[in-house]
Design brief:
The chain contains 1 helix and 4 strands. It is mainly β and about 70 residues long. The chain has a single domain, classed as Rossmann fold, CATH 3.40.50.300. The chain has a 4-stranded antiparallel beta sheet with strand order 2-1-3-4, with helices on one face. Strand 1 and strand 2 form a beta hairpin. The longest helix is centred in the middle third of the chain and has 9 residues. It starts with a strand and ends in a 7-residue tail after the last strand.
């Protein structure tokens, strides 16, 4: 099956703090998914990476077959 969202080895650090480390997730179309975790786990940073607010240090973000890395959020 084709993935609507395909995230591979996503990473983001701020100084020496690794906010997101080696995240890989695949989400199929017409499915319901959630991201859960405690405070400080990197959920907001992960979504900021998906939306282009932050640029990942490493990894790929593919949405509907198109790379989102490097695109502007607008």
């Amino acid at each position: 099956m084709t993935l609507l969202l395909d995230v591979r080895n996503l990473a983001k650090s701020f100084g020496g703090i690794k906010a997101v480390r080696d995240v890989t997730i695949g989400i199929q179309a017409n499915s319901i998914s959630s991201i859960i975790g405690p405070n400080g786990a990197g959920k907001t940073t992960f979504f900021n990476l998906l939306t282009g607010i932050y640029k990942p240090d490493e990894g790929k973000i593919i949405f509907n077959g198109r790379s989102l890395v490097g695109l502007r959020p607008d």
